[in-house]
Amino acid sequence: MQPPIPTGTILQNRYRLLSMLGQGGFGRTYLAEDLGRFNERCALKEFIPSQSGAYVLDKSKELFQREAAILYQIQHPQIPQFRATFEENQRLFLVQDYVEG
After folding, report:
1. Are the C-beta atoms of 30 and 51 separated by less than 8 Å?
2. Between these two residues, 90 and 65, which has the higher pLDDT value?
3. pLDDT band (50, 70, 90) for residue 6
4. N or C: the chain end with fewer CB closer than 10 Å?
5. Domains (ranges, CATH) in the chain?
6. How far apart are CA 72 and CA 88, in angstroms?
7. Rounded CA gap, 7 and 26, in Å?
8. pLDDT at position 83, please?
9. Entry pTM
10. Is 19 helix (H, G, I), strand (E, B) or coil?
């Protein structure tokens, strides 16, 4: 598993990492500020496949994109709003609104 991304790192020339909120079996969640939206806070979820290899990575990307498409369609006040997905340095990220608490 790759190490956590250091605080202060800017991803996609847009998201500045403020802290790591948590880590679980499927990845990490970071608190970030969106430099393209008036430094509004957001949650960056990094998906980390449990195994390596080209097939596993391709399948993981497919499942990740499928989950992102489902989140994009959900409009509910109890679920943080989906914003975007991106890949950087062979890491997959999902961006959602940050909800404190």
Report:
1. no
2. 65
3. very high
4. C
5. 10-97 (3.30.200.20)
6. 20
7. 20
8. 93
9. 0.86
10. strand
